[in-house]
């Protein structure tokens, strides 16, 4: 019993020892794996290309702020690669010792601390690497810009060598400025190499600025020199030749002194060449614009005179003929007006207007008589004569237009009289027809207001006849009276038909009302009242209202029925 217990205890101890050893072995192996991972990460950091980035950036010869930024990142990298990596090495060494001593809990904590340090280092190195990347890319862009400036500079030098004659008098000054830019670039390289980044940056910026300014200058100078050296001189030569030809043909130019104007342009070109020699390009550009404008004006003067001569040659006789034509027309129109004024009243100042035309025509003729000898003697510019001819056409066209208008109005007077005469006859005929229509109805009498209106229309027609029979007919008055007569007759016609309808309807109503005469006293009284109004007072409308009201009281709807029947059969009843 005792030996079995001892054996059990021994076995339990062995098992426990095996378990403890197994756990220890597992934890130690796990820590070793984590330690290896840290070692691999550390090696990867040391194998990174940061050192290569630093060497590449150093070769860029940075200046100014870029160099300061580079030094800051380089110091950051040195701090990481010394202090932080040393701290990490120490932590890894501690982990190895703890793991070998089977102090697994402390080893685990040390691993976690080392992993945190590794994370921080990786993060910081990532920032450094990104900083170097941005700096390198920035410097590459800057280098490209510097290279572009250098390329432009080289192109300018080449342009001066190959096409120096295109710069004319500006060549020496441009060459001087190119050498000045070259000096700045040389100074920049010297300062940058010797390690004076601040001044090197200032010199570089100045060199770049002067390079691109000079490039713009060299781009403009050939064009402006071409104008001054070739374009303007050739144009001025052509103008001088043209001017000489015009003088030989005895042209008169409408300017103070054309030859002097040409010389002024020559002087402007000479002054511009002097400004170009000093490379005052903005002054030259502005002056060349004005010079081109002055040359255009000189061309315009000559071209206008040549065109004006053609116009004057074609229209000289035509203007003279037009003046004679207008004079003849006006004379004939005055005769027509004199004859017409004996028969018709002229209400639109026709005679005064035609006399005014004569004054205008005579003034045009007077000016033409002055221009003709001046043209013959070559004392007037063709453009001035052209201007007069166009003005003469405008005046004579206006006169002829109004002459035609007045002539047509005269002819319309005769036509209008015939039309008015016919209208007067038609109105009198219509009035007689109305009178016969009324007489045909054999009414007991006519209302006073109707008679007054009838006689008024008759009087108006008589006035119209009198106006048409005057020695001098006033057609404005006649036409106005015709319109009034038409309106009066229209109203009289309406009044006549209304009166006849009222009388006929009254008779129809009274005939129908007689059937109630003995049955209704009020109907009898209305019949008697309507009878008096109809036969003695001739108030047909009042009579119709009287009998119609009475009939409607005893036989509702009778009035409307009788009225409808009457209008449906009026042609037979009236």
Automatic annotation (TrEMBL):
Cytoplasmic-facing ranges: 28-574
The name this protein goes by in its record: Septation ring formation regulator EzrA
Segments in the Extracellular topological domain: 1-8
Predominant localisation class: membrane
UniProtKB keywords: Cell cycle, Cell division, Cell membrane, Coiled coil, Membrane, Septation, Transmembrane, Transmembrane helix
Protein topology in the membrane: Single-pass membrane protein
Classification via InterPro entries: EzrA (IPR010379)
Gene from which this protein is expressed: ezrA
Family designation: Belongs to the EzrA family.
UniProt feature coiled coil, ranges: 104-131, 399-437
Alphabetical GO biological process terms: division septum assembly; septin ring assembly
Function recorded in the entry: Negative regulator of FtsZ ring formation; modulates the frequency and position of FtsZ ring formation. Inhibits FtsZ ring formation at polar sites. Interacts either with FtsZ or with one of its binding partners to promote depolymerization.
